[in-house]
Amino acid sequence: MDHFVSMKELTEKEIIEFLDRAEMFKKNGTHELPGKYTVSNLFFEPSTRTKMSFEMAERKLGLDVLPFEAAFSSTLKGETLYDTVKTLEAIGVDALVIRHPEDGYYEELIGRTSLSIINGGDGSGQHPTQSLLDLFTIREEFGSFEGLNVLIVGDIGHSRVARSNAQALTKLGANVTFLCPDEWADEFKSVNDWDEVLESSDVVMLLRIQHERHGGEELFTKESYHEQYGLTTERVLRMKERAIIMHPAPFNRGVEIASELIEHARSRIFMQIKNGVYVRMAVLEKILKGRK
Ligand code: CP
């Protein structure tokens, strides 16, 4: 595998191999990769979790990490993404983790650089390492995916997390249902009432409203969204006995989820973040070891 950019092309076997390797990392901690590899994290959109957990994964693997700050880079002087990547290739970097606002930014890079590209999120396209950490967390809880009912709620059409998870979970045998206003459904077939789905769901995955992709148009106030589509303290009481709450974060307290539910016994939100380090170690190892 030369690059890791999308869940769409991964086979079920490849996904399970990543999860198994991440499980090994979670049990055993640090693991120095033989050989000397240099990586850099290029984030052209804000990030706390993805950027920090890639950095932690890189340190645990003993990689050299070249710092890059988009806000202080020559991007501000008009340098294109392609030219930035070719520059880092010339400097001697082996792999780049890239987050970029443009859907499919990686398509113009693959085949034109000897660097490996790991996608840290592209616009509304894909967020494959988030998907892997979500899958890891679900498997830790339920042991497998076959027949699980996963409900994804919120700004589905703008969400790279929803898109990556829908593809991966369906491939693994889970039933994925979407709950959102019709205006946000995009290519997804959705329901728009909690009553149809809440009591049968094993996983309730909430999403942040992606205001930055709405072009200034807002359908809801915080209060009206919470009332209609948020996981409230009343709704949580109707969840199945073993059902869990997930959210890729950052979360907006009192909007898509009641503040009291963030650290509720059903919530796996901080466990998702913890698991992100191990799946990212697995991805970095696979990509770097596969380099010719
Ligand atoms: N879940 C996620 O991608 O969070 P960040 O935007 O903070 O990286």
What does this structure look like?
The chain is an alpha/beta fold. Helices cover 33% and strands 14% of the residues. The strands form 2 sheets. It has a 5-stranded parallel sheet, with helices on one face. It has a 4-stranded parallel sheet with strand order 2-1-3-4. Strand 5, helix 5 (160-171) and strand 6 (175-179) form a beta-alpha-beta unit. Helix 1 packs across helix 4 (128-142). The mean pLDDT is 96. The protein binds phosphoric acid mono(formamide)ester. Residues 47-50, 121, 130, 248-250 line the site of phosphoric acid mono(formamide)ester. The site of phosphoric acid mono(formamide)ester has 9 residues, from helix 2.
Which short descriptors sum up this protein?
9 strands, binds phosphoric acid mono(formamide)ester, single chain, 7 helices, 2 domains, Rossmann fold, 292 residues
Count the beta strands: 9
Which ranges are low-confidence, i.e. pLDDT below 50, for 5 or more consecutive residues?
A: none
What is the structural class? alpha/beta
Helix-residue proportion: 25-40%
Instruction: Please tell me what the overall shape is.
Output: globular
Alpha-carbon Rg, integer: 19 Å
Side-by-side strand order of the widest sheet: 7-6-5-8-9
- Give the distinct bound molecules: phosphoric acid mono(formamide)ester
Q: Count up the domains.
A: 2
What series of H and E elements makes up the topology? Answer: HEHEHEEHEHEEEHEH
Named CATH architecture of the largest domain: 3-Layer(aba) Sandwich
pLDDT averaged over residues: 96
In CATH, the topology of the largest domain is named Rossmann fold
* CATH class descriptor of the largest domain: Alpha Beta
Tally of individual helices: 7
CA(first)-CA(last) distance: 11 Å
Q: What percentage of amino acids are in beta strands?
A: 5-15%
CATH superfamily of the largest domain: Aspartate/ornithine carbamoyltransferase
The biggest beta sheet reads:
5 strands, parallel
